[in-house]
Structure formats: structure tokens, C-alpha cells
Amino acid sequence: MTHRIVSLLPSATEIVVALGYEAALVGRSHECDVPSSVKQLPVCSEPRIDISAPSPVIDQQVKSALRDALSIFRVLNPELQRLRPTMIITQTQCEVCAVNLKDVEAAVTELIGLTPEIVPLLPMSLNDIWSDIHKVATALGASDQGHHLVNNLQQRLLGISANTARLQSRPKVACIEWIEPLMSAGNWIPELVEIANGQCLHATAGHHSPWLSWTDLLASDPDVIIIMPCGFDLERTEREFSTLTSHPEWQSLRAVHNGDVFLADGHLYFNRPGPRVVESAEILAEILHGSTVSYGHQGSGWKRAE
Question: Which of the four pLDDT bands, split at 50, 70 and 90, describes residue 55?
Fold first, then answer.
């Protein structure tokens, strides 16, 4: 069977490519950008909100849309009709992060003469990510490639764990997924912190990212703070960092006093539940263990806050 795939999720696009099916991709979401070669594909979704706005404004826009039962993203139906996909990959994990299942299902009902298979992913933990890779591989008739890919990723994570487990330092870590209001990074992030031999605060593996109060952040007084906003690259994270530093309690935090606050690329790494979770764990290992562990991501995937 000849596949014609539209991926509406950046991590799903990376999964398809890692399985060896990049040539089958005919369309992508507005956020799919890895590998760079997929940028030439037609875009099949767009945001309904201004995603270039500051984080407090984005938060207000999102909450307003959800109150009005509006989707954050829209599927471009004419483009789907033109591309005639046989498969559309989407997600059911978060209405804010990417096009969700109900929007795809609604779009498909309007297509004429097309009945593409919808493959919904639900990544909440590392095991879910492995399951999603197997789900995509099975849909493509590539189960063997799926098993090989998952095994390779798991072995690489075991290697990182082995490198960090021998280290005595096991710092308390606050991973910040949104700056204003504060949100702690949940889902698979606590597992990655554990692999990097850290103690993740404020969030539970396999559960959605929770809102975080300044009172709780101050009470936990983490050894390390890592800022990794969802959808923000390193440059944008640096631009918005002043929202945190201007808070009257910021300077009282141990991590701030010791210079152990770090900025990370949440767009390319931590918020992509696919093959890139390995690089995300590598970044955490580098941040938490300084010169002891190095995978070459400093400067591109993360930097120390100034």
C-alpha cells in the first residue's frame, strides 16, 4: 500500500521519519520543522491565537478560547482535500499543544471521497511514547522498524542512566514549562529527570503538567531551576526570562543565589514526545552534572541563565 501521511504533531513527524517513511509525508502541521527537509511540505493547520505574544497574553488567549469551547488550532480542510491523505496522525494528550482528535475527525467528515485512517497518539509517559511509536509503525505496516527504533531509544536512555547513576550528586530540580503563570513540567519530564539522576519537584510522571504557585516554588527551594517553556526555542525563552527575574521573590531562591538557573529549548526538545526524548535526557544530564557529563548540547539546546 502506498501511504500518503499528514502529520499534525511535530513528534509524530519525527517518528515517521525515524521509521524510514519520510517520503510518504505529504503534509504537516505549522509546527513540524524536524528534520528541516519537512519544512517544504504543505502546512495543514494554523493557530487561532497569536502564538508570538508574551506568555501571559498567550495564557489569557488560551483560557478565553477554551471557555468559549473553541479549539486553539484549526485544520485547513481545503489543503487536506487537495493532498488526499490516506493517514492523518494527531494527538489526544493536550488541546493547547497541537491539533486534537476531535478537530481532525470534524475535518475528515467534510472531505469528499476520502476516508483517511486517523492515528491518535496519547503520550503521557515514556511507556506511552514507546506505545505511540509502535502504533504508528503498525499503521504503516512497519512493526519490525518500530521495535528496532524503540529498542534503540531505550538502550540510549539506559546508557545515560548508567553515566549519571555513578555520580553522588542528585539535585532537587524544578522544571518550568510555562513562565506566566507558572507551570511545572509533568508527563514524561519527571522520568527524564530521574534518568539524569535528579529529583523532580512539583510534578508526577504520567500526569499532566500542573500549575505551580510561587509559594510552593519558594517552599521547595530547588537546587536547580530549568526553564523550558512549551513551544519556545532558546532565544525566545531568553527574551521572556525577565518575567521571572522581575518577581520580588526570585532572588531569594537557592538556585538563583548559586547561579544554577538554566534556559532550555522546549520547542525542539522537552515538549516533543518522540525520538528526541533521548536528547532531552542528555541535556538534563549535562545541566545537572556540569563538566562530568557532556553530550554536546550546551549552547544549542541549553545555556546557563544570565
Answer: confident
Please state, as a whole number, how many other Cβ atoms lie within 10 Å of the Cβ of residue 201.
22
Under a CB-based contact definition with an 8 Å cutoff, are residues 281 and 195 in contact? yes
Cell numbers linked to 199: 529529583
Helix or strand or coil: residue 150? helix
Question: Do 3 and 27 touch, CB atoms closer than 8 A?
Answer: no
pTM: 0.94
Q: What is the CATH number of domain 168-304?
A: 3.40.50.1980
Residue 71, all three cell numbers: 479549539
The domains of the chain are located at 5-122, 168-304
Residue among 6, 15, 47, 7 at smallest CA distance from 272: 15
* Domain 5-122 in CATH 3.40.50: yes
Residue type, 263: L
pLDDT tens by residue, 162-176: 999 988 889 999 999
Of 228, 284, 290, 223, give the one whose Cα is nearest residue 258: 223
